[in-house]
Amino acid sequence: MSRTWFVTGASRGLGRELVEQVLARGDRVAATLRRPEQLDDLAARYGDRLWVRALDVTDTRQLRAVVDEAFAAHERIDVVVSNAGYGVFAVAEDLTDQQIDQMIATNLTGSIQLARAVVPHLRAQGGGLLMQMSSMGGHLAFPAFSLYHVTKWGIEGFFEALAEEVAPFGIRTTLIEPGMVRTTFYDAATRVPVSEPYRGGPGDTAPIPLEEMTDSEENTIAGVIRAAESVDPPRRLVLGSDAWELVTGALRRRLAEIEPQRDNAATADAEDVRAAS
């Protein structure tokens, strides 16, 4: 049975790959991006199975209007994929106020507002799947990438709560957590030159060549589609052996740091709680 997908950030990278794969399967796609002409080749090939609209996810009024239009134009939207986002490589001190505000508006606030816009439609149709592009960087952090981690750790927390809120309506959620994927994401990312105090330090590293990255763009998206088709989609979808190794390692280290604090943690309990234990 064919499905209908709604995808943001469809111009390049994982978003474009997702649109291409689901169309090739025979599904329908409502794709959004800042420059719709970037999908003209797919529109010519797939006709009315591809619905395209311009969308800047930082414009909440436009976002709500496009979401309303997409659901009105399709009998049902089965899967929503929130993919719009980008990266800024810089040590925290070197970031500009504008870079901070713009990236949070795109990667975090835009994702939150998209979820808020689609949930009423998914609830009205009796359910659906909301997939959010996160990253292994929602569990761990690298120097000179702190702003990106802000958005991914933030959206992970938002979806942790949202998943519980919407489950009674038949709405499932999945955080997509890939590793380092060979994609145009890294070419498109902003790279701020390292200022003098940080030169030679942990934040002063050369970009990793694409051919040295672990994960295939095509295979990553195939994993996303398999999860969307599954009877029980995972709330967190780790993709790439690098992501699995780094995420599980980070979680083990975090638990190892916290476990020895059990007795000390209990010293903060109220007296009546202590007496009852």
Question: What does this entry look like structurally?
Answer:
The protein is of the alpha/beta class and 277 residues long. It is 46% helix and 15% strand. It is built from ten helices and nine strands. The protein has helices at 13-24, 40-46, 60-73, 97-124, 146-166, 185-188, 217-229, 241-258, 262-266, 271-276; strands spanning 4-7, 28-33, 50-54, 79-82, 88-89, 128-133, 171-178, 190-191, 236-239. It has a seven-stranded parallel sheet with strand order 3-2-1-4-6-7-9, with helices on both faces. α2 (40-46) links the parallel β2 and β3. α1 packs across α7. The longest helix has 28 residues, at 97-124. The termini are far apart. The model has no long low-confidence stretch (mean pLDDT 96).
Quick take:
By secondary structure, this protein is α/β, with parallel strands linked by helices.
List keywords for this structure.
single chain, 277 residues, alpha/beta, seven-stranded parallel beta sheet, two-stranded parallel ribbon, 10 helices, 46% helix, 15% strand, globular, SDR family oxidoreductase, SDR_fam, SDR_oxidoreductase, oxidoreductase, NAD(P)-bd_dom_sf
- Average pLDDT across residues? 96
Q: State the helicity in percent bands.
A: 40-55%
Class inferred from helices and paired strands: alpha/beta
- Give the DSSP E fraction (strand runs of 2 or more residues): 5-15%
What is the topology, as strand order, of the major beta sheet? 3-2-1-4-6-7-9
Uncertain spans, ≥5 residues at pLDDT below 50? none
The quaternary state of the protein chains shown equals single chain
Order of helices and strands: EHEHEHEEHEHEHEHEHHH
Largest sheet: 7 strands, parallel
